Amino acid sequence: MENELTPAENNELVADRAALSPEEQERVALYKSRIDLNDNSYIIQYGAESQNKLVSFSETVLNQIRNKDIGNVGEVLSGLVTDLKTFDKNIHKSGLFSIFRSLKKKILHIKAEYSKVEKNVVQVERQLEKHYQTLLKDIHLFDKLYEQNEQCFRNLSLYIYAGEDKIAETDPESLTAVQKQQLHRFEKKIHDLKLTRMISLQLAPQIRLVQNNSSVLMERIQSSLVNTLPLWRNQMVLALGLVHSQQALEAQRAVTDATNKMLNRNSEMLRTTSVRIAEENERSIVDIETLSKVNHDLFATIDDMMAVQEEGRRKRLLAEKELLNVENEWKKKMS
Question: Distance of CA 334 to CAs 154, 155, 328, Å?
């Protein structure tokens, strides 16, 4: 929406006397017929109504501009951007969820972050809609102010034209000194009206410029409402979905890793156990080594036993000889 002052509108404001409508020409004639240069009060009040109207709605325009609470739109959007950056940082920060013990708690934390930002997005939407409606009312108000200013400008022009006609048809030579003074004051009054009309002329593009600024801001707000905020919301949902997928992938990876680890461990255990069983199955009930050792031990035992018996026999023979000697000695002693 463009509300700049167009050349056509500008020409309409500065239209010369030839462009006056018949009705306006009649009003010029009426104003001129009522001019009384001998009435001080009339000279003072001449065109004052239109001047006062200009002052009145000029103050309205000024107050409207001064009281605009639009500056915080940028602050609102900046605050939302900060929240979004924090959200993005939190869900992608490395090791953020190391303190959590389960995937469920991770997802709950992400959803809590999303809910927090989503709440702020809703608040921003409401504030932007409120600003949008305010600006829309302002634009309509500025249209009315522009019309009032245009009407004031034309009314001032009619008073000026009537006054100029009155001055032009007045012969200063026929006036007394007092009347000349009154004529001089009236000429100054017409000059003041021209200054007021110039203010009105300058106010017209100012109104359009302020109105255009409001329109531009409305367009930006509308773009934020229909494009930016939905895009942000979609991106947050997408980010949340990606985190869900990432967490699911990590869970699946963990399952796969555990499965592979278990299979490797079981295969190693199976190999070891199978080899042992096969080895054990191929063994005899009694190992040949054991039989050899048993034979060796038996033979050694027999040899040892025979050696012991032989030694015992030798000792007995020696004992018998000794007994026989003792017996013979007793026989000799007793004979």
Answer: 191, 192, 10
